[in-house]
Automatic annotation (TrEMBL):
It comes from the Bacteria. This is DUF2069 domain-containing protein. Residues 126-153 form a coiled coil. InterPro entries: DUF2069_membrane (IPR018643). The chain crosses the membrane at residues 23-43, 49-69, 76-96, 102-122. Keywords: Coiled coil, Membrane, Transmembrane, Transmembrane helix. It holds the Pfam family DUF2069.
Length: 153
């Protein structure tokens, strides 16, 4: 009997796809573990409540959790919008908080792994599953053809 995962994605993953998924997961889980430990235990932010720290720095990482658990390529793709925040945060702290260099470098490493992994996992897995994002040019050509065929009637 097939598992639910096999029913959702009957196409086997190629080794390159699995590798990029591992990169994405290492980066994602790394950020998910690093950020609360760093911001609540190692170097708490003065002047900010724990609720603020959670909402701004940790909650965004929870948004793609369900889709990542369900192995949805689309979730991996849009998770890159979230990881951009961690790049901005990390590069800003490289400049202003050099005393936290090890934590900043860890954040940037995990964010890089997640970004590269998510980007290429979504691409490769989408190709394996036959998913594709239609190009605007194709959409416009179809609309034009449909409009012309209607106007001829």
């Amino acid at each position: 009997m097939s598992s639910e995962s096999e029913l959702n994605h009957p196409v086997a993953k190629k080794p390159i796809t699995k590798r990029f998924q591992r990169f994405a997961l290492i980066g994602y889980i790394g950020l998910l573990i690093l950020m609360p430990i760093w911001l609540f235990l190692i170097a708490p932010r003065e002047g900010h409540s724990n609720a603020f720290i959670f909402v701004v720095y940790i909650a965004p990482l929870l948004l793609p959790l369900k889709g990542i658990i369900q192995d949805k390529p689309y979730t991996y793709a849009w998770a890159n919008f979230i990881v951009m925040f961690y790049f901005i945060h990390g590069f800003t702290l490289l400049w202003v908080a050099q005393d936290q260099l090890i934590w900043v470098l860890l954040e940037l490493t995990f964010a890089s792994l997640m970004f590269i992994g998510c980007t290429y996992y979504a691409r490769h897995r989408g190709q394996e599953l036959g998913l594709k994002i239609r190009k605007l040019k194709e959409e416009l050509a179809e609309e034009k053809a449909a409009h012309e065929s209607e106007s001829k009637k």
